[in-house]
Each structure stands twice: as structure tokens, then as C-alpha cells.
Here is the input.
Amino acid sequence: MTSTTLSRRAVLAGAALLAGPAAALAHPARAWPSRPLRLIVGFPAGSSPDLTARALAEPLAQALGQPVVVENRAGAGGNIGGDAVAKAADGHTVGLMINGNMTIARLLNPAVRYDPLTDLAPVSLIGVAPLVLVAPADAPGADAGGFLDAARAAGSRWSYGSPGVGTVGHIGMELLKRRSGITPVHVPYPGYPQVAAALAAGDLQLSMLPPALALAQIRAGKLRGIGVTSSGRSLLAPELPSLQGTGVRDFDLEIWNAVAAPAGMPRAHLDKLAAAVSAIVRAPEMRQRLFQQGWQAVGSSPEGLAQRIQRDTQVLGGIVRAQSIRVD
Here is the structure.
């Protein structure tokens, strides 16, 4: 798929944003929402997306003047929830999504029943976070450069863990392999806690973990932090350098969550929802709450989220296609 095609599809993903004055007149923003809003989460209660959705629900209800009901539609890595949002036709359903569900879901699995680039309308980017490249506490190398030199020398004798094929921990490591010349073998695990335990036991030599889990293990002396995957240092892990800053060129990877709507939602409704979500996310109390959950708050416009979707689809999709990664 060419970058031109991706750009065209990303525009289609925000097609509802371009509905024009007629749509706004037909659906006055002041009349919406006229009943409770359903906020679908494609993950179980207690998960990170669920916690973010529940933190957002009450202030969003106050801002919109209608209750916001969080509904968990867990399964298929969040794609069941994504499909429910894409297919909703009641005008009062939106979703709390993660980056994979809004970018490469169908590239990973052609059987996914919705196309994130055409069936979802971007609303607002909520929070971003880097992953943290970690290793056992006694890993070689005096710094990130030395560690990667050791990894290159080890070749396929080293292995890395992820919480499964097609996860950002898997795709991110494959991106690092292409950018840095290391060649460790992939070993999938049921989840991040199992990956962290295998690293601490010395069964794995490296992995990418979410910052909250990684920093807890690093500060406990169980793991060693090598660097973060964002282009620069992160407030979520200020003591660690960025991998790009230590010599891994063109390496910039973040996980994120966002609010999305069905592609057919009128522009006036999207604007009202986006303004409310963005204001809530940028408020000091919510910024602190998100930070405690492991997110750096953003609160973007729909156009800003559409740009992030386009960029990540191209970068992550390139790795998915190059490595023929598929999830059944």
C-alpha cells in the first residue's frame, strides 16, 4: 500500500469531519446528545483502557449534560469493541480505543469486520506513552549503545519476549531490529507480567514493557532500563534516555489511547464531543490521574488524531507487511 493510498484512507477515516454546513444545520450541536451516551471499551473491567474510560465518563457526562455509560465489549485484542463502535447507528455510541484498533487491526487480521481507516471517525487523542526497552539486571554494556553492541554480537542466541504476536511489544521489537541491526528471536508470552518475570529470571535477554511495569521492576533492581521508544526523553520515565538519542536512527514509537466515533457521526456532534474530551483531558486533575495510570495527557483535535493514525498506520503497517505478521 503506497503512502498516497494511506493518506487517502486517512482522509476517509475523518470523512465525518468534512460533512459541511448542511450536516451541522440538520443536527444542531446544542440538541446532542439527547439521551445517555454509550462509551464502549474493547477490553475487560480493570484493564488500562477501562480505567481511562471510567476516569473520563463522569466529567464527560457533566460536560454533555447526559449520563455516559461505560460498556465493556472485550475480546480479539479490542477489535470486538472497535467493530461495535464502527457499526453503531444510534448516534449516541463512541469508543475508547487503543492505537492498534485504530491503525493496523485489519492489516494484522483481514478477518476483522471493520476497517479502522474508513469506519471510524477520530475524536481526540487522550494520552501517549513510550515503551521501555528492558533487560535482565546483569545485562552487558555500560550504556544503551554498549548493550545494543552486545545484542548485535549475540545474534539469534538472544531472545526477546512480547505479550503475543501482533502486539505493540512484538511489532516494536521488530522495528527496533530493522533500525538497529540486532536479531534476537521472538518468544510470545500470555502477557506483560509473564514477560517481566522471564526477563528477571534470565530466560529472555530483552523486551519492551509499558512504563509503569518497567519502572517498578527497574526501581526494585529486578530489571535494567536501556531506553525509551519515544523520540526524546519521556516525563513518564525521565531517568532513561531515548533510543533515538543513543544512536538508533528514525526510531519513534509510542502507545496511545483515544476516543473514536462511527464514521457517520455528523461534524457538529464530533466537534462538540472533541471539544469536551480535549478540555477534560487537559484539566490538571485529569492530567494527574492519567499520569498515575501511565499516560502523558494530550487532548487533541480530531485532525490531530487523524494525523497520528496516518503516521502510525504507515510505520507499523510497514513492519507488519515486511515481516508478514498475521493474527488469526
In short: The chain has 14 helices and eleven strands. The longest helix spans residues 302-322. The two ends are 21 Å apart (CA to CA). The longest strand covers residues 120-130.
